[in-house]
Amino acid sequence: MSHSAAREPWYKDFAIYREPRIWVIFGFGIISGFPWVLIGSMLSAWLQEMGVDRSAIGLFGVVFVTYSINALWSPLIDRVQLPLLNRWLGQRRAWMMFCLAGILIATAALAQLDIIENLWWVACAALVIAIFSATQDIAIDAYRIETFGPHEARLQSAGAAMATAGWWTGYSGFGAIPFFLVDGTTLMWQDAYFVLCFIIAAQMLFVLAASKSIRYRPEMPKFDHWLDWLRSTLVEPIAEFFRRSGWKLALGMLAFIFLFKLGEAFLGRMSIVFYKEVGFTNDDIAVYSKMVTWWITIIFAIIGSFVNLRLGIVRGLLIGGIAMASSNLMFAWIAGVGPDTDLLLAAVIIDGFTAAWSTVAFVAFISLLCNRAFTATQYALFASLGNLGRTLVGSYSGYVVNWLDGDWQLFFILTALMVTPSLIILILMRKPLLRLEQNYHREID
């Protein structure tokens, strides 16, 4: 924990949010979270209403594996300059604009497809959105980390909180729109996709209005051979992390990153299917799962950043992980009771609180691990590993529900237990991680 943070009154932490850079990060968080609506909750609801099997709906989550392997092309976002766009917008925003254009085109294609007759093409469009979104996230994360100097630990923590709040605004806040449109009007799901194209266009305008990344260094080293380029851009960032941490601690941290969000991923992938099978309407999902979760997550993401600043990132991860596992049991309760909106409200409030807290700590944790010489590449590697468990393994959640013969209560109990291995690893690594965190704060105080 930062000594300077401990000396100052807690209410002075709120002054951080007067910083304009924080709100730019919030806007980019919205852009990052919005594609998950297009290929996540919205697509799952559309598939479920068309009678597609749970296992097939779960397998659609395979497209999210792109978020897990985007580290493979993350050096491109550091090294490759897009013609015209780079000169006009700068390295980070140029890639954001390029990716948003791809997302817009694929979303417009979804608005023209019949999901039963063109299921293969729907999957292809979802994959295209996932690829561009995962690439866009590399640039957004690098922009966020580069926005604050190494001496601005408070702003970096607040940036992580606002990135989380923005992501949930894009996913939950804007994610409620298609559910309201389909239930409250005569529009079909394809029409809802067309409406969301205008939101993507607005996001492109936001990218244009933002400032350039002020700490990105566009000078490119010259290499005599392509192997030298590969070694510099991909091998060296990995090697540097292991040299700096030691291989035992490095492997432990990587295992923790892979396992921490596994249970949450299983729950999230099947949540919309669960709501609809239990008997909740699209309006219920829009109000409780989207709108309420949106505000709860924003509030507790900000509060979580303060708590983590005071307790430290490692303690925040431990507390957040325990709370995250416990909150999954609320959904097991709903499975036994049925479509009770009061119980759903309580569940999404608790789940939003625990998800926000744990996510802010998680983002701050992997940001802490990055060497600024390899910002985009190292952050993408860590984030990709965390997404690998969430996406690849989570894609089989539908098979697990079918294997349990639709026993949703047992399914959610299993998701609560999935966080246990990561917490055990965190406890075992607690002392060296606390030293790492203390050394970091000692350097910047």
TrEMBL record:
<feature type="transmembrane region" description="Helical">
    <location>
        <begin position="192"/>
        <end position="210"/>
    </location>
</feature>
<feature type="transmembrane region" description="Helical">
    <location>
        <begin position="249"/>
        <end position="272"/>
    </location>
</feature>
<feature type="transmembrane region" description="Helical">
    <location>
        <begin position="381"/>
        <end position="404"/>
    </location>
</feature>
<dbReference type="InterPro" id="IPR036259">
    <property type="entry name" value="MFS_trans_sf"/>
</dbReference>
<dbReference type="InterPro" id="IPR004752">
    <property type="entry name" value="AmpG_permease/AT-1"/>
</dbReference>
<keyword id="KW-0812">Transmembrane</keyword>
<feature type="transmembrane region" description="Helical">
    <location>
        <begin position="55"/>
        <end position="73"/>
    </location>
</feature>
<keyword id="KW-0813">Transport</keyword>
<feature type="transmembrane region" description="Helical">
    <location>
        <begin position="119"/>
        <end position="140"/>
    </location>
</feature>
<protein>
    <submittedName>
        <fullName>MFS transporter</fullName>
    </submittedName>
</protein>
<feature type="transmembrane region" description="Helical">
    <location>
        <begin position="160"/>
        <end position="180"/>
    </location>
</feature>
<feature type="transmembrane region" description="Helical">
    <location>
        <begin position="316"/>
        <end position="337"/>
    </location>
</feature>
<feature type="transmembrane region" description="Helical">
    <location>
        <begin position="21"/>
        <end position="43"/>
    </location>
</feature>
<dbReference type="GO" id="GO:0016020">
    <property type="term" value="C:membrane"/>
</dbReference>
<keyword id="KW-1133">Transmembrane helix</keyword>
<feature type="transmembrane region" description="Helical">
    <location>
        <begin position="410"/>
        <end position="429"/>
    </location>
</feature>
<feature type="transmembrane region" description="Helical">
    <location>
        <begin position="292"/>
        <end position="309"/>
    </location>
</feature>
<feature type="transmembrane region" description="Helical">
    <location>
        <begin position="94"/>
        <end position="113"/>
    </location>
</feature>
<feature type="transmembrane region" description="Helical">
    <location>
        <begin position="343"/>
        <end position="369"/>
    </location>
</feature>
<keyword id="KW-0472">Membrane</keyword>
